[in-house]
Inverse folding.
């Protein structure tokens, strides 16, 4: 059985490991989300707006946003 001081050090080390890993995961998730949003915007620009600015683009984006939010929830 671990002595009290050893137990405290173990718990400190484990808490540090968990916190560091959670931080790394958050950074990776944020990076992935940025890439996802960029790819979504790129596809909308290419396939819907055909690389042009259009007034109806705001409507299209609102509709797509609503459909994706319904399907996946808001982030």
């Amino acid at each position: 059985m671990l002595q009290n001081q050893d137990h405290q050090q173990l718990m400190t080390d484990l808490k540090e490991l968990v916190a560091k890993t959670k931080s790394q995961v958050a950074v990776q998730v944020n990076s992935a989300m940025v890439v996802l949003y960029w790819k979504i915007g790129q596809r909308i620009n290419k396939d819907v707006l055909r690389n042009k600015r259009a007034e109806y683009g705001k409507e299209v984006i609102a509709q797509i946003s609503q459909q994706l939010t319904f399907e996946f929830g808001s982030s």
